[in-house]
Amino acid sequence: MITGLSHVSIVVPDLDAAGRRLKEVYGLSMGEAKTNEQQGVRLAYVELGNARIELMEPARPDSPVSKFLERNPGGGIHHFCVTVDDIAAAGARLAQGGARVLGEGSPQKNVHGERIAFVHPKDFLGALVELEESGKP
Question: Quick check: is 133 catalytic?
Fold first, then answer.
C-alpha cells in the first residue's frame, strides 16, 4: 500500500525568503514556485534525491495554510507525504482500519496533477499525512 516517502512539507510565511535562507545556509536550491488553487497554496520543492522538502506559503487568506500560520507565525512542519500505488484502494484500506481520510472522498490533486488525500493527524501518531498516488505502474 505505502510505497515510499515523497516529501516533508514546511509552511513558511515567505516562500522566496525561505528559499534564499536554504540556499545561503544549507546550499539547497528551491525549484520553481507553483500555485495550487484548490489547496490555496504557493509552493516549491527542494529536491534531495530520495525525497523532497516542500515549502508552502498561503495563496489566499482562507486556506488551511493561512490558518496554520495564524497558530505558528514562524511556520513549521505541516505534514509528511507518502506515495501509494492507488489512492482509492489505500484510502479504503485505511478506513477499514479505522483511519479517517479527510475530504469525504472528493478528488484532490497536487500541482503535478497526481491524486492526493489526507489522513487525520489523530489517526497517525499526531501527524497529518498526505497520500500521493505515485503514477507508476
Answer: no
State the catalytic residue, choosing from 24, 32, 70, 130: 130
d(CA 69, CA 13): 7
The string of pLDDT tens digits covering residues 100-137 is 999 766 778 888 889 999 999 999 999 999 999 986 54
CATH class of 2-101+108-133: alpha beta
| pLDDT (tens digit per residue) in 59-91 | 999 999 999 999 999 999 999 999 999 999 999
Residues 6+ apart with CB under 8 A from 40: 58, 59, 60, 62, 63, 64, 65, 66
What are the structural domain ranges in the chain?
2-101+108-133
